[in-house]
């Protein structure tokens, strides 16, 4: 059964996949981590690197690759934001991108997909002491700016997963009627970072299984870039990072209290006094009312990572909030008649994307003009941020991910 609360005029069709009453959020989440998805939803990408004004690097993975097929200039584009330490290789990303970018004649939507890989994630180098966080939106802002400039005739749609869903929500709320994205979809968004962090920290099982697993992922990810971070000798991050990497047992809030509150975004507002100050600032549940494009939010009631949900959806007429009884965190698995285990949640997501990409009536965009200043793309009136494409491109095989990291977390 799917419980749907709709506070907008968007119609969301209900799905009721066959799931046993014994299915739990823990099992769904565990399968998202340990399941073998290497033989399904294969996606390949062309990677482009963007350099930001602060010297950071973002990786854009575009599918289908240019050598596979050429799409029309007005083909809708699905811009994807991954989870905490993920990237374009994640199975939950490919579960949506594979059918969304399959040609129409083969049963797909025929869209273009672009995954925005955060600094240091999925093989993207770290070239500045600034990293990323759930609340920092300037990297997605400049990525969307670049994509809009490169594909001026295409309709842009956004989808975010977990931490990426929080970033997308905040971006759309901050942009309001000026958004370059025509619609958005947030999957397994953590919403109230403070309350959900408290739930993770205050329950023994959740603290020792989920909180510490996510912290280990962050430890391993930053360890890969320790030598790059060590070159920023005037920044406190290298010394702090050494202490964090030596810790044998660290929780997510402890990692955020040591690293993210300092390096998770630009100054101001970073650094924050504590992780809890960062959580209060970076939450997205209170900004839903500021969104001004059609927006679908999907969460599962039995998600062990996100346990506090904004059921009222901010009272926004632009937001459709769907809550399923089961699905875990980034799970929503069912077994097909052929015996394959796949994410059934992609069915409503693809329906939403098709409606947003093809049926949605969109008026003239009220967006800021794009300008070029010394080779950097910027928005008029917002000249503190910008980006430029830099040399170096790669071909990425989507099933090849970051070894050693727990997928889906």
From TrEMBL:
GO terms for molecular function: acetylesterase activity; monoacylglycerol lipase activity. The active site is at residues 162, 303, 329. Transmembrane segments: none annotated. GO terms for biological process: medium-chain fatty acid biosynthetic process; medium-chain fatty acid catabolic process. Residues 76-330 form the AB hydrolase-1 domain. InterPro entries: AB_hydrolase_1, AB_hydrolase_4_sf, AB_hydrolase_fold, ABHD4. It comes from the Eukaryota. It holds the Pfam family Abhydrolase_1. Belongs to the AB hydrolase superfamily. AB hydrolase 4 family. This is AB hydrolase-1 domain-containing protein.
């Amino acid at each position: 059964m799917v419980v749907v609360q709709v506070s907008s005029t968007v119609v969301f069709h209900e799905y009721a996949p066959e799931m046993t009453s014994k299915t739990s959020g823990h099992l769904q989440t565990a399968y998202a981590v340990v399941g073998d998805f290497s033989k399904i939803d294969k996606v390949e990408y062309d990677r482009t690197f963007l350099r930001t004004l602060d010297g950071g690097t973002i990786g854009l993975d575009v599918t289908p690759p240019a050598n596979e097929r050429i799409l029309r200039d007005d083909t809708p584009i699905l811009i994807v934001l991954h989870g905490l330490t993920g990237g374009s290789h994640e199975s939950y990303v490919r579960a949506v991108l594979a059918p969304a970018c399959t040609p129409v004649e083969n049963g797909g939507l025929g869209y273009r997909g672009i995954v925005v890989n955060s600094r240091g994630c999925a093989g993207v180098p770290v070239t500045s002491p600034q990293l990323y966080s759930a609340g920092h939106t300037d990297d997605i802002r400049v990525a969307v700016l670049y994509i809009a400039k490169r594909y001026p005739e295409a309709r842009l749609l956004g989808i975010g997963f977990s931490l990426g869903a929080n970033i997308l929500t905040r971006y759309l709320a901050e942009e309001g009627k000026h958004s370059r994205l025509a619609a958005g979809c947030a999957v397994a968004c953590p919403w109230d970072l403070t309350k959900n962090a408290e739930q993770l920290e205050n329950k023994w099982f959740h603290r020792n299984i989920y909180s510490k697993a996510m912290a280990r992922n962050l430890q391993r990810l930053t360890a890969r870039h320790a030598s790059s971070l060590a070159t920023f000798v005037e920044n406190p991050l290298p010394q702090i990072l050494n202490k964090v990497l030596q810790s044998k047992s660290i929780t997510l809030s402890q990692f955020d209290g040591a690293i993210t509150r300092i390096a998770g975004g630009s100054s101001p507002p970073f650094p924050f006094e504590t992780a809890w100050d960062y959580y209060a600032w970076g939450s997205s549940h209170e900004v839903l009312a500021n969104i001004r494009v059609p927006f679908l939010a999907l969460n599962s009631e039995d998600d062990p990572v996100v346990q506090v949900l904004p059921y009222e959806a901010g009272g926004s007429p632009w937001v459709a909030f769907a809550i399923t009884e089961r699905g875990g965190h980034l799970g929503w698995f069912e077994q097909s008649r052929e015996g394959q285990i796949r994410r059934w949640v992609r069915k409503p997501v693809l329906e939403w994307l098709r409606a947003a990409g093809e049926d949605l009536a969109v008026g003239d965009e009220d967006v800021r003009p794009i300008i070029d200043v010394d080779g950097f793309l910027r928005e008029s009136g917002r000249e503190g941020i910008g980006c430029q494409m830099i040399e170096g491109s790669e071909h990425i095989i989507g099933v090849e991910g970051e070894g050693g990291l727990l997928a889906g977390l």
